[in-house]
Every structure is written in C-alpha cells, then in structure tokens.
Amino acid sequence: MNKMEIERITLFEQMGGTPALHNLVELFYQHVLADPILKSLFPPDIKPVMIKQEQFLTQFFGGPPLYTNEYGHPRMRARHLSFPITRERADAWLACMHKALQETIQDVSLREEILERLSITAYFFVNKEE
C-alpha cells in the first residue's frame, strides 16, 4: 500500500469501524462516570448520550454520517453551551478518552492522531472560566 492509499483510509476504518468505535465509547463512558469532575454533567440514563456520541464519532472519524442523518448538522459547540465546560473539564474529558483509546487501539500513532483531533474539539467547547 502506498502513502496515497493509506491517506484515503479514514480514521474510522483504521480504528476498526463500528465494533471498535462502539467498544471505545463504552469504555470512555465508564471512565467519565467514574470521574468526579465529569460525572455530574451527565444524566442518570447515560445510554442515549452514548448512542449520540457513537453516531457523532462515526462521522467525525470519516464513517457514515449517522449523527447528521438523524439530528441534522452537529453544531456541537451550540449543543454544549448549556453545560459549563471549563478547561479543567475538557482536560478530564480528554484524559478519559485517552484511557479508553489505550484500552482499545494498539497503534500508538493512531491513538495520538485520534486524541489530537479530539483535543481541538474539546477545547473549542470550553465556554466558562475556571
């Protein structure tokens, strides 16, 4: 496979598609619900949040546009404005994702690329000072 062919493979495909992403989201929310900084931001019934997260991440990483097909344009910053997101919470969110990635993705460079992409998004959501 040459460099051009590798670049056309989406992150979604590189990480293992739907089964891998589902596993990542499951593990991620286990970490989130155990995190004292984050758990209060989420409803007691976390399953609908997990489904939306999986749909969004599928398309965010280059898979089918599941989230958009069901809910329209993501507008994720606007959808998160009602939640007080501080830099500390963005850091905690990324730490939980980092743990889940370590548990699901063996390729270190792929994990780093995914986390780098998510970091941009996480810090874009910050809407409140500490």
TrEMBL record:
A Pfam family recorded for this sequence: Bac_globin
UniProt entry tagged with the keyword Metal-binding: yes
Database matches in InterPro entries: GlbO/GLB3-like, Globin-like_sf, Globin/Proto, Hemoglobin_trunc
tRNA-binding recorded as keyword: no
Assigned keywords, A-Z: Heme, Iron, Metal-binding, Transport
Family matches, as PANTHER family: TWO-ON-TWO HEMOGLOBIN-3 (PTHR47366)
Entry's family note: Belongs to the truncated hemoglobin family. Group II subfamily.
Protein name from the UniProt record: Hemoglobin
Lineage: Bacteria, Bacillati, Bacillota, Bacilli, Bacillales
